[in-house]
Structure formats: structure tokens, C-alpha cells
Design a protein that fits this description.
Layout lengths: L2 H13 L3 H17 L1 H5 L2 E3 L11 H9 L3 E8 L2 E6 L6 E3 L5 E3 L12 E4 L3 E2 L5 E2 L5 H5 L8 E4 L20 E3 L5
Parallel strand pairs: 1-2, 1-6, 6-9, 9-10
Antiparallel strand pairs: 2-3, 4-5, 7-8
Length: about 180
């Protein structure tokens, strides 16, 4: 399958699920992540506000913030992603793709990030990721410590193989729970 064909295939799989099923799957994934020692030990975590076809991490964003973790969220800035610290829901505004983004100062101490949860349209077991085709995360991931980024996806987004090129960055692991 080409990247475009795989994107279409994933969209079709997503359409087979109701918004309530996807919400529950997101909650199940968040609950499993809460028990993960890497989440528990993290002090500075990169998460994301989800698009409708991504695992929603809002419960972890809020929980981590309340627990005193430094929660970073990406902000689209031209052709790249800036990272900004989450300072509560009141500090968010809608970004260019309709995603809620923090409005504070840019966070530049990328080596301080000890956990990064990365979305994608699809992953394979080797950590290859299929993004939306704009390369935002392919430009961001090389700037982070290599062993801290973990792919997050719904079970139907984990496929046998993702087509990839030399400029596509892999994640060190894909975190997915079995579909019940």
C-alpha cells in the first residue's frame, strides 16, 4: 500500500467506530498509560491535543498538570512545531488546524523532556509512523532524546507495515492496547 492508500484505509477503519467507542478507547489507553512507570516517573512530558481521529489524551494533560508535571503541547508555527508549556485550559486558543494550542512562551529546553507521546494515522510494530504528510513530527523528533518517544494509536491503527522513506522518523515503541 502507498502512504495515501494507507491513510484512506485507516480513515475507513475509523469510520467503523462510533465517537463513543473512540472516546472509550481513548480513556482505556489513558488509563493504561497512567499505570506505565514512564508516565509516573516523567517530570516534563510532551503530549498533544487530538484531532478527531487520534487518541484523546486530554485526561492525561489535565492530570499531569494538576500533579505538577510540566506538560508541553505542540503549536503549529509555519512549517514546524513549537512546544509550549500547558498552563491550564484558560491558556489555550484554537490553532490553524482547529487544535487547541497553548499561548504561552516557547519551550526550548528539549533535552529536559523525559517522555513524548506521539500521534499518527498509523504505526507498524517496528515504530514506523504514518503522519498526515506535512512532516511536522519528522522535523521535531530528531531534536528529542531518541529513547523517549512513544507512538500512541488506536488498535486499528497498528498495521503490519507502514511505507517509509529515509526522512521519516520512527518512534522507539508503539503503545497500543488490545481491542476488546
Amino acid at each position: 500500500m502507498t502512504k495515501q492508500e494507507l491513510r484512506q484505509w485507516v480513515r475507513q477503519r475509523k469510520a467503523e467506530h462510533t465517537s463513543e467507542e473512540l472516546r472509550q478507547l481513548s480513556l482505556d489507553i489513558c488509563n493504561a498509560l497512567r499505570r506505565d512507570p514512564r508516565w509516573q516517573a516523567s517530570r516534563t512530558a510532551l503530549l498533544y491535543h487530538a484531532l478527531p481521529d487520534e487518541v484523546c489524551l486530554s485526561p492525561l494533560i489535565e492530570e499531569g498538570f494538576r500533579e505538577g508535571k510540566r506538560i508541553l503541547l505542540p503549536v503549529v508555527s509555519g512549517e514546524s512545531l513549537q512546544l509550549r508549556e500547558y498552563e491550564g485550559e484558560q491558556s489555550l486558543s484554537r490553532g490553524p488546524f482547529g487544535i487547541m494550542e497553548p499561548t504561552g512562551r516557547e519551550f526550548t529546553d528539549l533535552r529536559a523532556i523525559d517522555l513524548a507521546l506521539i500521534p499518527a494515522l498509523a504505526y507498524d510494530p517496528q515504530g514506523n509512523r504514518l503522519g498526515r504528510g506535512r512532516g511536522y513530527y519528522d522535523r521535531l523528533l530528531p531534536l528529542l532524546a531518541r529513547n523517549i518517544y512513544i507512538g500512541i494509536c488506536f488498535p486499528f491503527q497498528l498495521v503490519a507495515a507502514v511505507p517509509h522513506c529515509e526522512h521519516d522518523w520512527k518512534v522507539s515503541e508503539v503503545f497500543v492496547i488490545p481491542h476488546s
